[in-house]
Amino acid sequence: MEVMEKHIEALELFNEKAEKLLSSAFVDASASGKTGATISARRQENGLFEISEELRGPTSEAVDAFILTFRFFVQDNETTSLRNVAKIYDEIGDDDEFLSRFNSARNSINQFLDSPNLMNITFDNSTPTNRDVMDTFIYGGLAHAKPKKVQLFKAWMGFPPASVLFHLCFNDVLGEVLRAISFIKNLNEELILKFESS
User: Fold this and answer.
1) Residue 12 contacts by C-beta under 8 Å, 6 or more apart in sequence?
2) Looking at the 3D structure of the chain, how many domains does it have?
3) Helices 160-197 and 130-137 sit at what angle, rounded to 10 degrees?
4) pLDDT tens, 146-186?
5) CA-CA distance, 198 to 193, in Å (whole number)?
6) CA–CA separation, 112 vs 106, rounded Å?
7) CA proximity to 29, closest of 157, 168, 134
8) Which residue segment(s) compose the domain that 24 sits in?
9) 37 in helix, strand or coil?
């Protein structure tokens, strides 16, 4: 029974963090319909082009705040990571319907993350996956400093046309992962109710 209580606590914490993300300034800005990017070039007198870019959507502060909570779902030192919650569903295991629905959501998000990036950006002869984009922003620019990720993030940000597209892609990837988190939150609520009523 003590193990089950710990599992329920982890699922409740997952839901609490998911709710925080769903009510964030990042989500409000993303849902505003005013997101996007503009890249323009102006020929200078010397014949070279001056490139300017504009990213519309969540502010950098909104993204930073979102990532502080988002990390609870992607870092395995947290009981709320998708991988650790998968273990909970496996251990509970007495209801194939819940396990099947959870695995379906998790498999879908993993398939999405392992697909070529949403913008189909190729950089330095490589097409990063959605997971590559997410990890490079989180671990190379926003929350941690893994040397290889930092180097790659700086390279992306150092090339104006790519930087705005990668930012836009990153925001979209976060939105897709959040949809899966929201689905799992609702599934957790059903599972918790089931245990509380039994």
Assistant:
1) 188, 192
2) 1
3) 100
4) 889 999 999 999 987 889 999 999 999 999 999 999 999 99
5) 9
6) 10
7) 168
8) 2-197
9) strand
